Structure formats: structure tokens, C-alpha cells
Amino acid sequence: MPQSLQIVFHGINRSPAVETAVTEKVEALRRFDNQLGACKVTVSQEGHQTMGAFTIRIDLMASGQELIVNRTNMDVMAALNEAFDTVRRSVKEEAEKRRNH
Fold first, then answer.
1. Which CATH number do you get for residue 71?
2. Which domain holds residue 65?
3. Tell me, what's the pLDDT at 24?
4. CA distance 45 to 8
5. Neighbours of 101 (CB within 10 A)
6. Total structural domains in the chain?
7. Among 3, 8, 13, 36, which is 20 to 30 Å from 61 by CA?
8. What's the burial of 87, exposed, middle or buried (CB within 10 Å: 0-12/13-18/19+)?
9. 22-46 residue pLDDT tens
10. Alpha-carbon distance 48 to 87, whole Å?
11. What is the pLDDT of residues 70-89, one digit of tens each?
12. Phi/psi at 49 (5° precision)
């Protein structure tokens, strides 16, 4: 688990399913970097009462660098998967650079 994981919901109610998915995805990042720093995931929804798109923002400290990723999709889990896919690639690339130097 990273030093701290904060999950913030903005414009929507808290979702245990989303919280669980975020926790599992952050834990999976440890395969590439076991010294992950603080991570903040913001889940927000535009529009009125389940009518708008979901935006996932991930702020993560990895390899001494701050990674910030935003992804938007009409499906919250699709947005979450897209955001974490991008973060995973970045964390993996940084870990490989460290091993090669």
C-alpha cells in the first residue's frame, strides 16, 4: 500500500465498489514500484444526478516524480480502468529506467 491513499468523491455519492477497485489497482502498482508515495484519486461527475460523464484524476508520487492523469468516460469503471492503465504504464517505464541505470 502506498504511504497514503486518499479517495475523494465530488458530485456523486461514495461508492464501495469504486473504493475497492481503486485500492486494488493502487496495490497492483506495487509490482512495479514498491516505494510508491502518496496517492490521491478523485472521482467526479459532471452534470446533474447521474446524467454526466465521470472524470477520474490520479495524483501519484512514483520514483520521486508526481504523476497526474485525468480520464473521462460515461462509465465510471471504464474511466477508472483507462486512468490506471495510463498510470501503470508510466510507473512501469520509470521502474525499468531505474533498473537499467
1. 3.30.160.100
2. 3-98
3. 95
4. 12
5. 5
6. 1
7. 13
8. buried
9. 999 999 988 888 778 899 999 999 8
10. 29
11. 999 999 999 999 999 999 99
12. 40, 80
C-alpha 7: how far from chain center: 9
Q: Which residue is it, cell 490520479? A: 58
State the Cα–Cα distance between residues 56 and 70, nearest whole angstrom.
Answer: 6
Tell me what pLDDT residue 99 has. 76
Question: Rounded to whole angstroms, how far apart are CA atoms 50 and 24?
Answer: 25
Tell me which residue has cell 447521474. 50
Q: Which H or E run includes 44?
A: strand 39-45
Prediction pTM value:
0.88
Sheet holding 5-10, edge to edge: 5-10, 39-45, 54-62, 65-73
Q: In terms of C-beta density within 10 A (0-12 exposed, 13-18 middle, 19 or more buried), how is residue 8 classed?
A: exposed
Average pLDDT, stretch 55-77?
A: 93
Three-state DSSP at 63 gives coil
The amino acid that residue 61 corresponds to is M
pLDDT of amino acid 93: 86
